[in-house]
Design brief:
3 domains, five-stranded mixed beta sheet, 16% strand, 42% helix, 13 helices, alpha+beta
């Protein structure tokens, strides 16, 4: 079977099927060449072809490659509206063919993100500068696809070293937005809203957050690499996250080796829970017992006044099983949050080849973007 995918600014995608080309295997190359030549004559866009077992995929990327984000247009310092128009053109194309660009956000969100990052990204002094929109787009593409810097640099029309510098500048700029988008609920009304959300979704009372950890795949560090070798058989660092009923991160901790089991005990969240400064002093009386605000976690965590874990399997009976079910429905919010985070930003799903000391910037940037969207 032969199919051809046509992409242009006017039509998002048109798929044409032709079964006749598969009847004669010897005639395939000739037929493919004829169709490709006819396509090139009728369409001025460049054709990129890929043959796999009798399948040719042709994509016309000229409308995209002409946009500022890919480096073919120079930045116009005097006319900001022109640059904004170029970025809008890019995002319109990215919305239509998001699977090819993988910016993971619509146009308005992209423009708002550029405005938020503007104070935190240093200005370049070189003669030919890289626009802010292009730097943000490069970073989003890198985070979403986990592509090598060499390929990203070629795609955006800049040098490899420039692509690396741009990526880390934007990631650190996103980290500066952490306090704006990530934080524990401060007022009693905010806490009550979260408790009500968990109550409606899971029937678990007084729950203000779901806590869990996940592994981020990394290269083996040059020193103490055995500490990063986890029980699953690969090297990782641990990401611990606390999310609310809307899958938004309230707190996170990143950087501990994959073999470590004391992340929660050494985290700032644990210290706040022990000091009683994490949540407002709210209680609810259930069967004569005052229940404080608490968070739910799995069996790997220690039971405390503010951390609730399920009863052990094989021991729970009757009401204990019902409590485990309600707790599981509440705790699954953090698992879904991790799933959404990794599915959107593949740099956390696949092996991340960044240095161990820089992983925290990548993870923090992805979590900020997760809450931003």
């Amino acid at each position: 079977m032969y199919f051809e995918i046509l992409i242009s600014s006017e039509s998002a995608m048109s798929i044409f099927f032709s079964h006749d080309l598969c009847k004669n295997s010897r005639a395939k190359p000739t037929a493919f060449r004829q169709i490709r030549r006819s396509s090139e004559k009728s369409n001025p866009y460049r054709t990129i072809s890929c043959y796999r077992t009798g399948i040719q995929v042709s994509a016309f990327y000229a409308p995209i490659m002409d946009v500022d984000v890919f480096g073919t247009l120079r930045r116009n310092k005097k006319n900001k509206s022109t640059r904004r128009a170029k970025s809008r053109k890019l995002l319109r194309l990215a919305t239509v063919i998001s699977r090819y660009l993988n910016f993971r956000m619509p146009e308005e969100a992209f423009l708002n993100l550029c405005d938020l990052l503007h104070p935190y990204i240093p200005k370049q002094t070189m003669k030919t500068t890289v626009s802010l929109e292009k730097r943000v787009a490069l970073t989003l593409y890198k985070l979403a696809s986990n592509t090598e810097f060499h390929d990203v640099a070629n795609l955006f029309g800049i040098g490899v070293s420039t692509a690396c510098d741009v990526f880390w500048e934007v990631c650190k700029g996103l980290c500066q937005l952490k306090r704006k988008f990530i934080g524990m609920p401060k007022s009693e009304e905010d806490v009550k809203t979260i408790i009500k959300g968990f109550q409606e979704k899971s029937a678990f009372p007084m729950c203000a957050g779901a806590l869990d950890g996940t592994h981020i795949h990394i290269l083996a560090p040059s020193i103490f690499h055995t500490d990063y070798y986890n029980r699953k058989g690969w090297y990782s660092v641990i990401l611990q996250g606390l999310v609310d009923h809307q899958y938004m991160f309230q707190d996170f901790d990143i950087g501990w080796p994959g073999k470590s089991h004391k992340l929660f005990q050494n985290s700032k969240l644990h210290a706040k829970l022990e000091n009683g400064t994490c949540f407002p002093p709210l209680t609810k009386t259930i069967q004569g017992v005052d229940i404080p605000v608490l968070i739910v976690a799995d069996s790997a965590y220690s039971l405390s006044c503010n951390v609730m874990k399920p009863f052990p399997e094989g021991v729970a009976r009757g009401p204990q099983l019902q409590l485990n079910e309600c707790l599981s429905r509440a705790r699954i919010h953090v698992e879904h949050a991790f799933g959404r985070l990794k599915d959107r930003w593949h740099c956390l799903m696949k092996r991340n080849d960044s240095q161990t000391t820089n992983i925290k910037f990548v993870v923090a940037a992805c979590i900020v973007l997760h809450n931003f969207l």
